[in-house]
Amino acid sequence: MSSPTFAPPAAVNTRSRVVLASLIGTSIEFYDFYVYATAAVLVFPKLFFPTTDPNVGLLTSFAVFGVAFVARPIGSIIFGHFGDRIGRKKTLVASLLTMGIATVLIGFLPTYASIGLWAPILLTVMRFAQGLGLGGEWSGAALLATENAPAGKRAIYGTFPQLGAPIGFIIANGVFLWLNLGMSAADFASWGWRVPFIASAVLVVIGLYVRFKLVETPAFQKVIDAGEVAAVPVARVFKTSWRPLILGTFIMLATYTLFYLMTTFTLTFGTAFSSATAAKAAADKAGTTFNPATFTPGLGFNRNDFLIMLIISVVFFGIFTLVSGPLAERFGRRKTLIVTTIGILVFGLLFVPLFGAGTVGTMALLIIGFTLMGLTFGPMGAVLPELFPANVRYTGSAISYNFASILGAAVAPFIAVALWQAAGGSPVWVGVYLSAMAVITLIALIISKETRDVDYDSNLS
């Protein structure tokens, strides 16, 4: 009589491995983006886009900042295709490599003074490559977390990759702050700004090490076992899930707009000279020409002081990202986001009274804004993937997330600066712009359905 044989248990990803692998990738993602966003305000206008009008240099720098957002939907299609064809693990490794290599190379680029027009061209190419990698990074990390989540905890697990945003922000701006305090302005402009880009290589190596140890998620393994792997995921998702694609894009719109207004516009407006006299004095000291016709006043905060204020405020971003998970599980994703989006709408109308109230008012604005950011961004790690069937989930959630990045983030800093300048230094229309985006998101949420109880593992198109 032969002895019974037992199949070995299927390998699973432990909770700690899921948390670390999903968190490390998005931390690197947002570290990379914050490093560029900060440099786009502080050094790139002078080093890569020199012009007699500093406002033109700033707007050009922000335009290149937006190039990555144009590349992200392309990346979402490319990496989404492979994520729904060959699996989440391999695709996450490839997206991290693409993003990380581009970021490190930015740190080695020669400036306009060395190679002329080739400098901004190469910067734009690297920025585009960053966007390609980022197009597949977030969705894969969100799926890694939620497709490994226990029953009734998808929204909680979905906050793990979202927590990478405040962590990446704190690390990136902490590095910039450390460099600013430890070296002269001349050294920072000469070579110090390169350090954060080159140092990201350390984070990439750690991320790759963790991700190589993953096994495939249970949900995608069921897709394979059922023989339901889509031949062309992008075609299938547009054919079977076009409505969730549209809704997901606009559900994410206010989140993205708030995100980049709080991280790029606030730094620009907060550190701009508060008077023409101060701006002229700085220009005279630097040996440059001051043009009063193009001067737009800001708050006049010291750069390091404002970075400290941002870092403190982002702590609230992280706290309320974690808080949003249990709220979305208890009250549902839709209700949680509707209440939060109404809060964003009202917040936009408070831009002028808060930004005009000195240090206390500005600090209050930053804390409120980043608190709302945590409450709206946290649930997105579950909401967008839950809109799509498992066999097109990577592609669908990635496309919605990244198309929202174009509508809400690629243009946000550019529009905000233009509105600020058009209002003669007042942020009133910037706040109205944020409120308008919140209205659009609110409409999308009202006509959408709750996704908390969808059959996540066996849901196929």
From TrEMBL:
Compartment list: Cell inner membrane
Pfam families, per database record: Sugar_tr (PF00083)
InterPro entries named in the record: MFS_dom, MFS_sugar_transport-like, MFS_trans_sf, MHS_symport, Sugar_transporter_CS
Coarse class of the protein's main subcellular location: membrane
Keywords, alphabetical: Cell inner membrane, Cell membrane, Membrane, Transmembrane, Transmembrane helix, Transport
Transmembrane segments annotated in the record for this chain: 20-44, 56-79, 91-109, 115-134, 155-179, 191-212, 245-263, 306-325, 337-357, 363-388, 400-422, 428-447
Annotated ranges, domain Major facilitator superfamily (MFS) profile: 18-453
Membrane topology annotation: Multi-pass membrane protein
This protein's name: Metabolite-proton symporter
Organism in which the protein naturally occurs: Subtercola frigoramans
